[in-house]
From TrEMBL:
Active site residues of this protein: 74
Pfam families (alphabetical): dCMP_cyt_deam_1
Protein's organism: Grus japonensis
Amino-acid positions noted as binding substrate in the UniProt annotation, renumbered to this chain: 61-67
Keywords linked to the UniProt accession: Hydrolase, Metal-binding, Zinc
Catalytic activity from the UniProt record: cytidine + H2O + H(+) = uridine + NH4(+); 2'-deoxycytidine + H2O + H(+) = 2'-deoxyuridine + NH4(+)
Name this polypeptide is given: Cytidine deaminase
Length: 152
């Protein structure tokens, strides 16, 4: 499903942000990107996470001279929200500087997102603000989550 940020095409599913709320979420992801600490990759990413209660937590990628310690924007946003007591999420928007491609979360981030449910939305944007929206289930099909630990 695609939208241009002005006239979103995706259907209005329950819980899906719309209109000005969606624009704010998209804007907060772009603003977070401006704070990215990425001197090694020079690939800034921003994320904005909408909680069930309507709050937005944003995050950027934070790299390290010990490369493997770098953290993605999506996980920064999730860790900020969780550490402030929020565990129920409606949507996340992700922004990068890529003009011709929608930014897509890495596999590790998809698994961390999935920890908090499979039925929420991720807005993948291009630098011009156009986006596609995917359910978590689409981004990580046949996933393993907390419920599965009870099945053995
Ligand atoms: N990165 C993110 O923060 N999110 C993504 O969705 C893709 C990649 C970061 C990790 C690293 O700091 C840089 O982008 C290059 O991989």
């Amino acid at each position: 499903m695609e939208g241009d940020g002005q006239h979103p095409v995706p259907p209005a599913l329950p819980g899906r942000p719309q209109g000005q709320h969606l624009q704010l979420l998209l804007r907060r992801s772009r603003e977070a990107k401006n704070c990215a600490y990425c001197p090694y990759s020079r690939f800034p990413v921003g994320a904005a996470l909408l909680t069930a209660g309507g709050e937005i937590f944003s995050g950027c990628n934070v790299e390290n001279a010990c490369y493997s310690l770098g953290v993605c924007a999506e996980r920064t946003a999730i860790q900020k929200a969780i550490s402030e007591g929020h565990t129920s999420f409606r949507a996340m928007a992700i922004a990068s500087d890529m003009g011709d491609h929608f930014i897509t979360p890495c596999g590790a981030c998809r698994q961390v997102m999935r920890e908090f449910g499979t039925d929420w939305d991720v807005y993948l944007t291009k630098a011009d603000g156009t986006y596609i929206v995917k359910r978590l289930e689409e981004l990580l099909p046949l996933s393993f989550g907390p419920e599965d630990l009870k099945k053995a």
